[in-house]
Amino acid sequence: MGTSVSKIVAVVTIAASEVRYSIVEGGFPGGVAVIASDPLLVGGENGGLWLAAGSPAIDAGTGCATILLDMAGQSRWDIASVANVVSGFDIGALEHSGTSGTDTIVDALVCP
Ligand SMILES: [Ca+2]
After folding, report:
1. Ligand 1 centroid vs 108 CA: distance in angstroms?
2. Which of 80, 76, 99, 101 has the alpha carbon at shortest distance from 89?
3. pLDDT tens digits, residue range 11-33?
4. Cβ pair 74, 97 in contact under 8 A
5. Pairwise CA distance, residues 5 & 81, whole Å
6. 28, 15 in Cβ contact below 8 A?
7. For residue 58, how far is its CA from the centre of ligand 1 (angstroms)?
8. Residue 17 phi/psi, 5° resolution?
9. How far is the CA of 96 from the centre of ligand 1 (A)?
10. pLDDT tens-digit profile of 46-56?
11. How far apart are CA 8 and CA 63, in angstroms?
């Protein structure tokens, strides 16, 4: 079990309409599918920040301009118990792992 992480802070200047399918503390007025709640990140053994079970980022991303594998080279999982916002992609660089036989590996890029 990794170390709990409460938040990541980034400062950027961007048009509201460009903030899409993201988690932003306090929300982002004018953004698209922006989640304001805690992403429930946990630190992994390799220093990455992973999504804990129950994270609102799970299956809340898009498959636009991305690849089918996450930053760690793992498959993208569509978690059966979580409703997809667009496809089974999670928000963020590291995908929450699914369970074979219950969940499915995402095999196509999907843009809303
Ligand atoms: Ca997923």
Report:
1. 12
2. 76
3. 778 888 888 999 999 999 999 99
4. yes
5. 24
6. no
7. 5
8. -65, -15
9. 6
10. 677 899 999 99
11. 23
- Which DSSP category does 55 fall into? -
Domains in the chain: boundaries: 39-112
Q: Which residues pair with residue 75 across a beta bridge?
A: 69
Report CA(78)–ligand 1 centroid distance (Å): 4
Separation of CA 76 and ligand 1 centre (Å): 6
Q: What count of other Cβ atoms lies within 10 Å of the Cβ of residue 60?
A: 24
How far is the C-alpha of 15 from the C-alpha of 11, rounded, in Å? 13
CA 50 – CA 110 distance, rounded (Å): 22
| pTM of this structure | 0.81
Q: What are phi and psi of 16, to 5 degrees?
A: -55, -40
- Report the number of secondary-structure helices (H) and strands (E) in the chain: 0, 5
Residue type, position 29, single letter: P
Structure token pair of residue 49: 């920040």
